[in-house]
Amino acid sequence: MAETTMMELVTPGRVLVSKSVEMVVIPGSEGFFGVLPRHSALLANLQRGVVEVYEGGKVVDRLMIDGGIADVTPEGVTILTERAEDLGKANVQEIAERAKGAADAEADFLKEVEAAL
To answer: Model pTM?
Structure first.
């Protein structure tokens, strides 16, 4: 069985993900970086992009984030972001409708979510 690390993705309104994973690939402000079990401690600024969660050697979840901060420790990673959407559960029509009625920053984010679907 592969070694795992704890991953949490948190927005102001909810905890979107909290589980053990093999690896997480995160859109850092200076490029994508991977987090594996026992990673060195790191605090990183994030840019808008897709977080990929790996289990069993495959991507099992894709989550769009709107920038934020990643707090990496040897035990896991916590991603703090203003907005996030689970691309595996997102519906194109629902995202488009939400974007129509959203404020500018939210609308821009939702348009990128729609494009990623």
So the answer is: 0.89
